[in-house]
From TrEMBL:
<dbReference type="Pfam" id="PF03466">
    <property type="entry name" value="LysR_substrate"/>
</dbReference>
<dbReference type="GO" id="GO:0010628">
    <property type="term" value="P:positive regulation of gene expression"/>
</dbReference>
<dbReference type="GO" id="GO:0043565">
    <property type="term" value="F:sequence-specific DNA binding"/>
</dbReference>
<protein>
    <submittedName>
        <fullName>LysR family transcriptional regulator</fullName>
    </submittedName>
</protein>
<dbReference type="Pfam" id="PF00126">
    <property type="entry name" value="HTH_1"/>
</dbReference>
<dbReference type="GO" id="GO:0009089">
    <property type="term" value="P:lysine biosynthetic process via diaminopimelate"/>
</dbReference>
<dbReference type="InterPro" id="IPR005119">
    <property type="entry name" value="LysR_subst-bd"/>
</dbReference>
<feature type="domain" description="HTH lysR-type">
    <location>
        <begin position="3"/>
        <end position="60"/>
    </location>
</feature>
<keyword id="KW-0238">DNA-binding</keyword>
<keyword id="KW-0804">Transcription</keyword>
<keyword id="KW-0805">Transcription regulation</keyword>
<comment type="similarity">
    <text>Belongs to the LysR transcriptional regulatory family.</text>
</comment>
<dbReference type="InterPro" id="IPR036388">
    <property type="entry name" value="WH-like_DNA-bd_sf"/>
</dbReference>
<dbReference type="GO" id="GO:0003700">
    <property type="term" value="F:DNA-binding transcription factor activity"/>
</dbReference>
<dbReference type="InterPro" id="IPR000847">
    <property type="entry name" value="LysR_HTH_N"/>
</dbReference>
<dbReference type="InterPro" id="IPR036390">
    <property type="entry name" value="WH_DNA-bd_sf"/>
</dbReference>
Amino acid sequence: MAMRLRHIEVFHAVMQAGSLSGAADLLNISQPAASKMLAQAEHSLGLALFKRLPGGLKPTPEAILLFQETKTLHLSLERVRHLARNLASHPGGMLRIGCIPSLGLSLVPQAVAAFARLCPDVSISIRTENNETLSALLLAQEIDVGIAFEPPAQAGIAIEELGRARAVFVGPDDGRADAGVHCVRLADLDFSKWIGLDAADPLGLKINAMLAALDQRDVAPMIEVKTYYVARALAESGVGFTIIDEYTATGMGDRRRVLDLEPALSIGVSVMTAASHAGTHALRVFVQQLAERVEKG
């Protein structure tokens, strides 16, 4: 007899709860029903999974091995149930969005707010990841769309640039804004106080290329960070200055610290979808809302 999905479910519940009564509570069934299913699971495998002790159930070495091997399947079952509940409560379907953290601060929330007004019956799931993880999630069909700054081309991923985001200066509150200064020249900055982005980051690469064009290729950041909002927070704390995208810069903190750059620098805001994904009406509406907000800047 093969081990059924329901058997795996009760087995995992017992492993987590440590007792049949606890497993029954987790599964919202009676204790006799949980005991019967566990006995069926053991019978189907032809081995005992637990030692019955006065203080509860102790897993056998075979049970521990089985638990490790079935974790992924059990998590997949939970995701299917979660999706089914969402679909039942939202007849319009579900939109799974992934974005880099920087765009999750202001741009994506604004687009989601507009989308929710237009498609109130659609359930929305949002997660923030880096470019590489977003691509992997798209290929695994775990998200419907990814939003990032100039993601690299990859087989199986369709990329569309929606517009450009300005790179801006963010520094300590030194009175420039109050004095009517709205722009800083890159060549005039004191790079001994530069909070730089990771050299492999798309915007970091552009900044380094611009510095090389200004014959400052040997300049190194005082602090290097991987996340834009950490760079923003450091600049606000008075540690130094940073150059980041306009969405991160204006989505949090004091906007008086944000100034334009000369020469101007920008980076593309792109949406990624699986090339095999036909695209739903909800996805098209969301991308349109996103594009409108990128265009407004």
